Amino acid sequence: MSNQLFKHFNQIVEVHEHEFQKIVPFFDSCHLSKKENILEAGKKCHLNHFASAGCLQMFFISGDGTERTIRFATENRWMTDYLAFQNGTITDFYIQAVEDTQVLSITYDKQEKLLTLFPKLEKYFRFVYQTSYGKSLTMMKYLYDFSKEDIYFHFIEQSPELAKRLPQYLIASFLGFTPEYLSKIKKRS
Amino acid sequence: MSNQLFKHFNQIVEVHEHEFQKIVPFFDSCHLSKKENILEAGKKCHLNHFASAGCLQMFFISGDGTERTIRFATENRWMTDYLAFQNGTITDFYIQAVEDTQVLSITYDKQEKLLTLFPKLEKYFRFVYQTSYGKSLTMMKYLYDFSKEDIYFHFIEQSPELAKRLPQYLIASFLGFTPEYLSKIKKRS
Q1: In terms of domains, do A90 and A150 share one?
Q2: A63 contacts in chain B (CB < 8 Å)
Q3: What is the total count of domains within chain A?
Q4: Looking at chain B, which residue has its C-alpha nearest residue A127?
Q5: Is B140 inside any structural domain?
């Protein structure tokens, strides 16, 4: 389980086995059942999560009471509300397991301490955040620019494995459709 | 001009004057006149820009030919298309000066070399990206959840100085309104 994180570190920076043994205790390992929350709106956000197996979704409850998903994190992806995590404040988001999911979680204070002790991991997180931020800018362009149908086809083209893995109502929640509208698009395609 | 970057580094990590003298040559300094582009869609994106004075906007041309702004960068903010910057690929975005603007620009290769020579700057960029990524997640929530009017009032409440500084058509381009719609909201308020 932590082996997944070890491999992911080594895709970006060189972390030796003996170093990793000192890194592991900074994390808490947690198994989430499908639909279990690891973060809830209205609570303080003090953990950053690495999905080592399974899939997480980050969503909020919109003004009309519907769940609106803004991100998924499958294996090797990090997920938290970074502003609330950084500032130790209350979050507006939920993070929930889409399927049975294994996460490694680290508190803000422990992450800062870990980075002081292993500065090479600054590069790792810099790269992870640089990529995630870049993707979010590109995602905003799609949301603004594409028609609803184009957003759907772009999503299944870019993330075919994720699209197969997710239930239809979650794809609808992510793309801002009703499940009925998504069915219509799929029938037309 | 580079003094602004020196101060900003030192808000996050400790960089000494003698170190900064070795850092400065990694950057090219550039003055942009109002409406001048420093990045254009269809071209390779190989530079990351620090706004030391003035204001930049990042936008794309949407399918219907309108400019759609996704971010502004005033003093102390970094701006590029991070995915294209990281991958050395062609961008879909423009970066343009909103007013006379002074930028310090660094190529991808030079930034990587700089971070190898001064690993403490990994922490600086990790923090910058962590914050930017956190803000983009929160921005997505507003875009999904808020009514157009609420988006406008939230923007002027959160960024009163920027709202005063920007021409109305750019605020409209950022919030996804027509300039006429923005005028209507302002009259009603």
Answers
A1: no
A2: 145-146
A3: 2
A4: B126
A5: no
Range of the domain at B153: 146-189
Domain final position from B133, B165, B181: B133
Same domain? A47 vs A24: yes
Residues B127, B154, single domain; the answer is: no
Record: contact B126-A126, CB cut-off 8 A: yes
Would residue A15 count as lying in a domain? yes
User: Mutating which of A91, A133, A150, A174 best tests the B interface, going by the most B Cβ atoms within 10 A?
Assistant: A133
Cα A63 to Cα A61: distance, rounded to the nearest angstrom: 7
- Cross-chain residue pair A82–B134, CB shorter than 8 Å: yes
Instruction: Say yes or no: B90 contacts chain A, CB-CB below 8 A.
Output: no
d(CA A94, CA A97): 10
Task: Render pLDDT for B124-162 as a digit per residue (tens, 0 to 9).
Answer: 999 999 999 999 999 888 888 888 888 888 888 989 999
B140 touches chain A (CB under 8 A): yes
Strand partners, B70: none
CB neighbours of residue A133 within 10 Å: 23
In this structure, the answer to whether residues B83 and B45 fall within a common structural domain is yes
Q: For residue B86, which residues of chain A lie inside 8 Å, CB to CB?
A: 130-131, 134
Query: CB-based contact (8 Å) between A117 and chain B?
Result: no
SS3 of residue B79 by DSSP: strand
Co-location of A122 and A87 in the same domain: yes
Domain match, A103 and A184 both: no
Q: What is the pTM of this model?
A: 0.93
Residue B177 identity (one-letter amino acid): F
Shortest CB distance from B145 goes to which of A62, A130, A146? A62
* Mean pLDDT, all residues of chain A: 93
CA dihedral A175, B45, B73, A88 (to 10 degrees): 60
- Percent residues over pLDDT 90 in chain B: 73
Give chain A positions within 8 Å (CB) of B82. 130-131, 133-134, 137
Give the ipTM of the model, two decimals please. 0.93
Q: What are the angstrom distances between the C-alpha of B115 and each of A52, B24, B110, B112, B119?
A: 28, 13, 9, 5, 5
Residue B44 inside a domain? The answer is yes
The pLDDT assigned to A2 comes to 78
